[in-house]
Amino acid sequence: MKSDFLRGLRDGFPIAMGYFAVSFSLGIIARQAGITAFMGFVSSLFTRASAGEYGVYTLAAAGATYVEVVAMSLVTNLRYLLMSTALTQKIAPGTPLIKRLLMACCVTDEVFGISINHKGYTPPIYTYAAALISSIFWAFGCAAGITAGGVLPQNIVVALSVSLYGMFLAIIIPPSRRDHNVLYAVIAGFMLSGVCAIVPLISNAMSAGTRIILLTIIISAIAAWLRPVDNEKV
Fold first, then answer.
1. Is the pTM of this model over 0.85?
2. Is the dihedral angle over the CA atoms 38, 11, 106, 96 positive or is it negative?
3. What does the pLDDT look like over 131-147, one tens digit per residue?
4. For residues 219 and 14, what is the distance between their CA atoms, to the nearest angstrom?
5. Residue 167 contacts residue 25 (beta carbons within 8 Å)
6. Residue 67: left if φ>0, alpha if ψ -120 to 50, beta else—which one?
């Protein structure tokens, strides 16, 4: 168990360094939403989802309701349910249910990646260790970004807040280049989001949070219906 734990820390350290940089930019956004450093640390420690946290902080800044915040979190983080299901195939038979549940709670995109690629069955302690170090860096990065947002010059804060959007571009551009169906969905999301924001009938009837949730569900559902993924190629 000790060797598996140390291996998890080792493999999780590069993830942790990347998390710190991304969550620092997320902290800049969080401060603009009125989130304190302590609140950002706690929320990041237990969430560890860049898109989910960004959506929550954005909705909080827009004065969204709790229902909208919860709905957005469910939509943006639904992929973790699929990852957790896939990870069950890498867990040794006879592993207690509590350990399986804890592994599911540790899942992020990157932690899932190293856990699913572990040779043989993945020891739970390995995933715990990788999640532990990456979560700590993620939480401290967010708190540091919130703190820095209060002391740095405004022009630097604005520049740092833009870096998070660069991260999202880095997420959507590679799959968009590989799969035109993804590209069409991304373009549709940009266009429809802009249209809904300027059309008075829609913008006045629904908040920004509700529009984002509805567009996410509608566009993804239409894309799945028109261009379903071929399971044989997955």
1. no
2. negative
3. 999 999 999 989 998 88
4. 34
5. yes
6. alpha
